[in-house]
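Milestone M4 deliverable, item 7.
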Amino acid sequence: MHSLRQRYGGNLIHTHAGPNMVIINPISAPSMYSEKVMHMFKGCRREDTAPHIYAVAQSAYRNLLTTRQDQSIVLLGKSGSGKTTNCQHLVHYLVSIAGSTGKIFTAEKWQAVYTVLEAFGNSATSMNTNASRFSQIVSLDFDQTGQVASASIQTMLLEKLRVVKRPEAECTFNVFYFMMAGADNTLRTELHLNHFAENSAFGIVPQTKPEDKQRSSQQFTKLQAAMKVLGISSDEQKALWLILGAIYHLGAAGATKAEADEAGRKQFARHEWAQKAAYLLGCTLEELSSSIFKHQSKGTLQRSTSFRQGPDDVGTGDNSAPKITALECLEAMAAGLYSEIFTLVISLVNRALKSSQHSLCSLLIVDTPGFQNPKLAKRDRGATFEELCHNYAQERLQTLFHERTFVQELERYKEENIELALDDIDSSTSLSVAAIDQASTQAWVRTLARTDEARGLLWLMEEEALQPGGSEETLLERLFSYYSPAEGESKGPALLLKSEKTHHFLLGHSHGTDWVEYDARGWLSHAKQNPASQNAAILLQDSQKKNISGLFMGRSGGATVLSGSIAGLEGGSQLALRRATSMRKTFTTGMAAVKKKSLCIQIKLQVDALLDTVRRSRVHFVHCLVPKAEVLTGDVKVKTETHGESCDTGLMQLDVCLLRAQLRGSKLLDALRIYRQGYPDNLVFSEFRRRFDVLTPHLTKKHGRNYIVTDERRAVEELLESLELEKSSYHMGLSRVFFRAGVLAKLEEQRDIQTRRNITLFQAACRGYLARQAFKKRKIQDLAIRCIQKNIKKNRGVKGWPWWKLFTTVRPLIEVQLTEEQIRGKDEEIQQLKLRLEKVEKERNELRLNSDRLESKITELSSELADERNTGESASQLLESETSERLRLEKEMKDLQTKFDTMKKQMESMEMEVMEARLIHASELNGEMDDDDTGGEWRLKFERAIREIEFTKKRLQQEFDDKLEVEQQNKRQLERKLTDLQADNEEVQRVAQQLKKKCQRLTAELQDTKLHLEGQQSRNHDLEKKQRKFDSEQTQAQEEVQRERSQRDKLSREKDMLTGEVFSLRQQLEDKDLEICAVNLKLEQMEAELQDLNSQESKDEASLAKVKKQIRDLEAKVKDQEEELDEQAGTIQMLEQAKLRLEMEMERLRQTHSKEIESKDDEVEEIRQSCSKKLKQMEVQLEEEYEDKQKVLRERRDLEAKLMSAQEQVSHRDVETEKRLRKDLKRTKALLADAQIMLDHLKNNAPSKREIAQLKNQLEESEFTCAAAVKAKKSMEVEIEDLHVQMDDISKSKQALEEQLSRLQREKNDLQSRMEEDQEDMNELMKKHKAAVAQSSQNLAQISDLQAQLEEAMKEKQDVQEKLTALQSQLEFQEQSMVDKSLVSRQEAKIRELETKLEFEKTQVKRLESLVARLKENLEKLTEERDQRSASENREKEQNKRLLRQIRDIKEEMAELAKKEAEASRKKHELEMDIESLEAANQSLQADLKLAFKRIGDLQAAIEDEMESDDNEDLINSLQDMVTKYQKRKNKIEGASDTDSEVEDRVDGVKSWLSKNKGSAKNLSDDGSLKSSSPPSSRRRFCLDRSDEEEEEEIEEGSTGRSSYRSRYKRSSSSYMNNSDGEAKLSETTT
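Output delivered:
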């Protein structure tokens, strides 16, 4: 406490408490959240930084990058402690430091997100001026590089009822005040906000203070700008404003009951405001009113409660429905509308934050409303149900903190056999959680019976809301009976206490340190389903305004809201889908599958989903504390402080008691104690050895790098001994090594230092290597410069040489073409490589998209499968519980039946006894009625006994009837439960079948992927073969490198030899120098001697000449030695140049070799890629070739006949043109030969110009003929090509027809599948219809039984009336007979008993009549349902009939197309056969005509020779008959052909011949006059009348085939034989 006070006084609000962070909310916002401060924490470890919220974010981000594990940061504390502000700081730091790809997530966008969330989800409360009224999880997904890839927000526990009602002096959500203050004139006009209502049922009124209005207007402008940043369009914003305006107008409209109606119909209080609301929502006033007040039409009440309630709950629900007031309905609609708006806003924010990039792990930030206690804010009221929910969520998060800090640590110590003495650490959790959400063991069973088993507040609220007589009093009584302390107990250990006020209770939160008084009035309304809130979504989806309906219809298809509770489950990344799946699993497993529709249990399920999501990650806790209570009420005014102000004023700002209570409630001191006394840091043996092995290099040198560790524990112990750590600072467990606080951080620091040193040494080695390489490069460059200088010198000497000039001018011309070709080839290679690269990129992107899509499908299907499996399990468990309960009730019914049988037997025995007593008494009365007075007393006793017996009989009968009715009701309840369970079971089976189908489809897809993998493996095998080939080539290249190395060694040896020779030459040079020195000494001596000789005049001139000669010899020797020295220097220089050349050559060879290796690598890579592509292309080509082959084979059979005919025509034409061309060629050759001869002759004989011109003309003619022949040949080739084109068109048209046929076949298959599905649906409907019919038959049987009972009751009534009349008559008789008064009184009593019995019978009859009426109503409902189902069945049948008709029409069209195709092919074949047969018949007929013409000529010649004979009358008559027949045929057939005209000419010739020879003009006058005569050649065709006529008739009839040709041939031959016989007879007569 002292350190917190000191730090807070020094404006240090952050403090480390072990692994946790403590933040005290400052009164004024300090300047410690700038960009500069952010970069101070970037990349730092937790131990190296000061306490700050950025340090928590950096620690979580560092752990995420190193471990690749999800992280989460949970903020805990009271309301107003600054949790949401710190959440914003966390997100701002992570987004700024980590960054994002393409800068998608910026600080500006996140600021816009929080602006929108604060507007729609925050409001001013008594404890905080800007309090969050919802819980949220901010998820940041990071990719492999550590950048933010995508983000999402999930919200839950929205306090939606704050829109309509809230505690006193508190406000609604901020967005209403922003909109009313900041809307411009056009928006106000559209929203009808020009005039505000005087009062509102929801309490939404505009602000009155000018500064508040100005602030709200600025916030509205900021909100619109934030929406624009998030990509929310103007239409979407307008839809939000319209719905918010409608909520305001609904509050202004109000609700009431109409006094005129007896039933009290609910309606709006002010219809003009309701009309405005309906207009803004895009519906009519009637639709809005029915959605709010008329619930039964929607049918949602029973549907929402049928899964939880029992069989009798429908009746209770109907009876309790009128208890819902009109104002409650209106409030439910407004709350539902605002819930839909908030969910839509979250989905729009997630749309702006989501991304399709691949993410690896996530960081979650959890922000919930803090602890709520109105007493701290000095408010004299009880806490509401919403505040209880927020406190419950905080308690659950505190439980998570306790579990991670205490329970898991202690369990880990126990597992690792670590004995730790912890002083006074309380490891028990808070008991207030159990008082709220403790479930019973009968949570699976649908029963409403109150049991003695302890249950939490949420479960008790659900039970009391469904009970007919449930109220807040009974709720609190049951809660106190379970959890309140017994009498005499103290207040300390208790967690629930009674309050002095009614409907109030006290609950101890935070381990009993924070007692909150709750007001339970109206809490049961939170547990009841109000259909108006459910109709809100339907109303928005059915809106006439497209911008509203489009938003909510699009959102209704997706799973953005889970069970109406958790919003923001949409997301594009895999991690978002995983989180959504885990939350859905929370709502579909175990008890949640049964109770997920309950409004109270949804609160527990939402918190469970939140904790399940956080538990999957490593959690970092941040505890936010409130400095003093005045901060909550807002009474403290911020005062500016000078720089030199002391820290004492800061100490005074803390409320020590409040701060101590917060520390005790959060168990921070216990957590810090276990952190100090225990071993908070631990690592697995292998991980510790691998991580810190770098600190002991002597161990690695000792064991070697490839040392395999067999005993990890022993290796870690040896490592720890070498690190020289204290024994108390660590502890060896069974599988882990544990460290005290701070030890592992020191080891990490040492490791960083050692790693930094190793990296420095490595960098130094790398830099040295690079420097040496640069020095070698400089040496080579120096050598190259020298070589260039030498070449330039040589070039200067050769520059004027003519041959060199010629060479320099010719050489570039030779190389130009080569370089252009090379450049062109390189460009082509570059283009090919670019195309390959683009194809590879496309394939890779497609494969990546396919893999992502398949993975998302697999995750979705697996989640759906898990959900359905869980629902099936829950349904099976429910079924088992229902069956057990049914068996128990049947057993009880059997016991009651046995009891009833025994009672019946006893009644029969008693009736027998009564009858015997009556007989005995009657016999006694016959003798002693008048005389004995004692007999009257016995008679009175007897009658009294009879009355008692009858009364007991009636009572037993009534009890039996009541029991029987109860048992019948139980039976009906069980039957209803059984039918519900059967329906649920059928639905589960149907879902299971669908899932089986999905599984089969997935298995098929998996098999396809397996086949694809096998193909990939085969391709990999081929690539491995190529890799082996490449390895062999690489070995060859390495051998070449070795050869080059050997050559290099050889060159180095030669270099050494040359250096040795240089050394020897230098030694020789030195020897020569020594010799020169000796010679110079000799010269000096000689000069001295010469001087001596000069001084000696005694010597003669001969000795002087000798000396001079010696001097000249010596000078010559000196010159020779100098020349030798020059030569040796030149050789040395040449050797050095040779050495330089060798070094340059070696360097060049090295570079060329490296380039060749790189080029070979590139070639191998290209070969790999090209081979893979070629394999794919070959596969595609094989498939295409196979298909093309099949098509060609089919088309070949169809087109062979046409090809043959076309080829025959072309061949005929080609043969003719070839013959013609050959003739022209021969003629031209002959002409050329003649021309050559003539030229030779003219050369010899001096020809004239005229002959030369003639020869030229002949030559030009021959060339012209040759060109004409070539043109004809080309024209024939063009015709052939046209025929080929026609054949291709025919094949294409056929292919199109086949494709159309296949498409029709596919449509047929689809329609068949639809028909099967429709048939299945119809079968299901028939099953339901049969079940309904069976139920109705049972109801009819019950009605008939009741009618029978009613008839029996009427009969009994008649019997009783008859007895009554008899008794009345007896009474009159007795009165007449003056009987005793006692007898009269007895008779009167008997009459009263009969009257009571009659009244009882009347009540029984009324009850039966009401039962009959109820059954009739049920029967009418069943009949209506049956009619609806029959109508739906009829609609389904009509749709099936329509589909069948469509299928039948399509089949008929297909059949007609097939028939037309077959008929066309048949006609084509028949026409081809007809052409062939006609051509054959034409040829045969032409031959026959020729023969007949020849015979006719012979006959005419014979007839002309025998004109004078008298026996030719018969012949002339026969000819006349033939001519008449021909005339008849000619009259029948018009438009004869050329052959007919020839035959007519012959006939005319015959007529003229007959007229000349016999003068038979008279006989031929009937057929026409013979006008002209023909020559003898025209008289040959009159014998073909019969054959031509038959042939033309057969052609007209259209007969085809070879049979017709044969018949015609036979007839023509027979006619010819007849004619020949006639000619023979004629010749005989002439002879």
